[in-house]
Design brief:
The complex is a heterodimer of chains A (558) and B (283). Chain A is of the alpha/beta class. Chain A has 19 helices and 21 strands. Chain A has 3 domains: 172 residues, Pyruvate-ferredoxin Oxidoreductase, domain 3, CATH 3.40.920.10; 179 residues, Rossmann fold, CATH 3.40.50.970; 102 residues, Rossmann fold (3-Layer(aba) Sandwich), CATH 3.40.50. In chain A, helix 16 links the parallel strand 17 and strand 18. Chain B is built from 10 helices and 8 strands.
Chain lengths: 558, 283
Amino acid sequence: MGKEQEDTAVNEISVLVGGKAGDGINNAGAMIAQLLNRLGYRVYQYFDYPSLIRGGHNFSIIRGSERYVGTHRNHADFVLALNKETIERHRDIFTPETVIVFNADQVKIPGNGVPVKEILTAEEAPEIMGNTAMIGAFAKAAGIPWETVEGVLKAHMPKATGKNLQVARRAFDRMTTIRPVGMGGNAPLPLLTGNEAIGLGLAKGGMEAYVSYPMTPSSSLLHFLAEHGPALGVEVIHPENEIAVMLMALGFAYTGKRTAVGTSGGGFCLMTEGLSFAGMAELPIVLLVSQRTGPSTGLPTYTGQTELHFVLSAGQGEFPRLIVAPGDGQEALYWSAVVMDLAWNYQVPAFVLADKTLSEGTYSIDPEKVPAIARRGIPVWDGSGEYHRYADNPSGISSLAFPGRERAVVKVDSYAHDESGITTEEGAMVEMMTQKRLRKGRSLAKGMEGYAGVVVSGAKDATTAILCWGSTKCVCDETGERLGLKVIRPVVLSPFPLDQLNSALSGVKKIIAVEENATGQLADLAGRYGVRADQRVLKADGRPFTPEELEERLAGVI
Amino acid sequence: MAGRQLITPAQNTWCPGCGNFSIQFTLKTILEGLEKEGKSLDNVVLVTGIGCHAKMADYLNINSFYSLHGRAVPAAVGIKLANPELTVICCSGDGDSYAEGLDHLIFAAKRNIDITVIVHNNRVYGLTTGQYTPTSPLGFRGKSTPAGTVEFPFNPIELMLASGATYVARGYTRKMEQLKRLVTGGIAHRGFSFIDVLQICATFFPATDYYNPRVYEMPDQDLDNFESACIKAREWDYNSDAKIGLGMFYNRSFPSFERQVPAPVRTAADREKAIAGLLAARK
């Protein structure tokens, strides 16, 4: 059965847009994503770009499906080529039916050329609007009604909307419909990148400050919150480096402000001393660590799942931490809110562990389907007696007071300390306070039993299961379903949800770990708890699995 | 909390003759004064790094944030940004803020954030038992440089002037009345206040006999003149044999950082509305 036949079973469309860096490929992709959204498709947009500002090849693949998707395909039904390189580079994903719409000024081949320069001259439009011409031409080639194009441009091109509409219309009129796409059959949904979803989730969780130093792929969250912080009630600070980021954030937390930091692996290296401090001083803090290909500077703009063990064990000493790895935009929205809340309930450092695929991928998000977040109040000091910041109790969770509170002397300390927060080297006290912090970790683990820390999907009765985590959710779900495999995915990675994992594994005879790293970090982690992966399907080239690629790799090990 | 006992029961472990006692007494006196003026010490936060200076956090019975080595300043910046109503006093050491955390000191000055940084500059690492610091004189024989250092100290006054500090002073632990004036002025100053305090380390760098004949009190004049501040700062380079001026180098008013950074406050309902609005705009 060929791809085309399969695709007709599920109404789908895959569009590739390519050009050189600086051409605005990501924005063009976003417009196409919105066109498909308004046609009733569920949308996923992948953006691939090198780490530079001008030149180099950028491309975006937008996939629309009548069903929910969160990964891009290995083929293109439509190609929008802003330059010749786009056609040369991506031939391997063209099919005989692929429709190529190209900028006729750049590409000299027969076919569906768009005379971009001529259109811009006729409309007296600047060069930057060349993309709009391409979008207009694509819409006509795909049989998308003009009203849809008009609606999308009006909603999502706030600058020079009128001129853009004229350019799009002229290109639209000059093109002919070649391969009409159907309707997706759904109501349009908000399209958000993973980082935007994380930002909204953190705001939902009550975030009052976001502190970050730019580092791909976390930077777009800094930009998003800098723009929307005033409306969301989030103060945004960009300090001198990640060491300062972490310490400033802990200063915010000390005063009672819910705060998050964001970075990638390299920046997180600099935050580890502050992380350990947060563990010792019991300062609640949320960290977005968005992974990219390492080690070291690695591939700044490509993905990877290589920091699981790093975030699990970063920072000297032993202290509890929460680590959650959402799988797509919708989960990111939900879990980011939960993580913020839990950080404050248990006074622990809490991670949202993402990667480039999730952070910069665009997903259809259904706000109606995001579970309600049950915010529990934080334990506030009742004002009786003398305030002790680290007063011990059976849960290990001390009550909170913040500077400015009458009669409270609030002392936090990076040294081993007593209940009042004064440094101690007395062995019995050190042991007692260590046990207090660990008991708090057990309280957290107990609290996590109320959350779906392990998600099961795919063929739920199958005896062979994919074990995966993070942004490979969507590709594993899709492939698992296709191949009749169960998909087991821990979303919570610390405290490790062993009971939930074991019940998910009931009836499973063979486990195949699928990870975008070179060693199988989740497989190793599960192994520590006695869950052995029989096979490991790994990938460490910085590019996310496509369903086709994963299917082929799995076929070899099933 | 009025009339509080300002010294905690924690056992004091500074060496006899340590200059830190003078700084502690100075701070205690200032805090008592604030309370007498009717200001609540509940709104005062002391931030310290790690080093002998930092024990201040354990010894003073006020809100404190006992931070990491070199990281007193960024924590203090975060606290002030989060709650500008707090008075944030930051005690740091020369190893702390001139070595490990120099970048934070420079950036805090650059931003002119309203915190008061007191550097206990004893020009030696005390807690790690005697190594050279960025302000140790050339040729300093410490445990890591037994043959003597071959690098010049830097001049923290000049450095802070260049970085944008709006209140720059130098005190000395043997001149407590003046030290009190300088710290009080720093706390009152609306912007970044920096006070380098020549602090005697009785054990590893007992420099009293060196300082006493050289120090003199600088007159408070022309304080808003940057050029003249620089000239005064260069009189002694923390190395050569020269007169050592104590007092104010520079003091000018300039908008402080925390008053200019937008700190939006929204109710939970407003947030939900904003979130719903942003989601709707993405359709």
